[in-house]
Amino acid sequence: MQKNLNNVIVKLVVVTNKSLQSGLLLLLLASPPLHAEDDTRELVNLPDMMQQHMLKNMRDHLQSINEILSSLDNGDLETAAQLAEHRLGMSSLESHGAGHMAKHMPPGMREAGTRMHIAASRFARKIEEGDMQAVYGLLSEITSACVACHAAYRLR
Ligand code: HEC
């Protein structure tokens, strides 16, 4: 990473000496490429069908977070709580086929998933109780679990 960054800086300095304008253009275009050796995430081999299923769940996770935030924004706390419990929380485990998939996951990945589902269910309860201070904390606990798992594991 550091080497890539240095390369970009060297290129930038050289080109900037020639012409400030093209130097700035280079900076915009030359985001450092991500080489496979920079990727420290652990590859988790899932059977193909399961991988497709997990990625579909993932897209639904992101959509759910978006719908939850929209509902909160509209003051519709009941919908936000329902979405959190049924699409991300402990009640979503069966529809997501989590039991099958968990067997194929390394322990750290399983833990991140469990942390996310527990945080989402607690988030739903706190919305119902109207404890908005706790709601913010738990929302960030949910997204932290997404980020932690993404930082450590990949499927492809
Ligand atoms: C237990 C681990 C784990 C958790 C928790 C998790 N993800 Fe993922 N997610 C992954 C992995 C692994 C991939 C695939 C990365 C790759 O190889 O490209 C992925 C991919 C995705 C994708 C891309 C889907 C596609 O079609 O390419 C989205 C969007 C996503 N996750 C959203 C979320 C959101 C939002 C959350 C939290 C609410 C979340 N994920 C929680 C592991 C996780």
Strand content: under 5%
The CATH C-level name of the largest domain is Mainly Alpha
Query: Any idea what the shape is?
Result: globular
Low-confidence stretches: 8-18, 23-29
CATH fold-level name of the largest domain: Four Helix Bundle (Hemerythrin (Met), subunit A)
Discrete helix count = 7
Order of helices and strands: HHEHHHHHE
- Total number of β-strand segments? 2
End-to-end gap: 21 Å
Q: Note the main sheet.
A: 2 strands, parallel
What is the architecture of the largest domain at the second tier of CATH?
Up-down Bundle
- Average pLDDT taken over every residue: 85
Order of strands side by side in the largest beta sheet? 1-2
Number of domains: 2
* Helix content bin: over 70%
Q: What's the gyration radius in Å? A: 21 Å
Ligands bound to this protein structure = heme C
Structural class category? mainly alpha
What does this 3D model show about the protein?
By secondary structure, the chain is mostly helical. The chain folds into 2 domains: 2-38, no CATH class; 42-154, Four Helix Bundle (Hemerythrin (Met), subunit A), CATH 1.20.120. It is built from 7 helices and 2 strands, in the order H-H-E-H-H-H-H-H-E. A two-stranded parallel ribbon has the order 1-2. It is globular. It binds heme C (HEC).
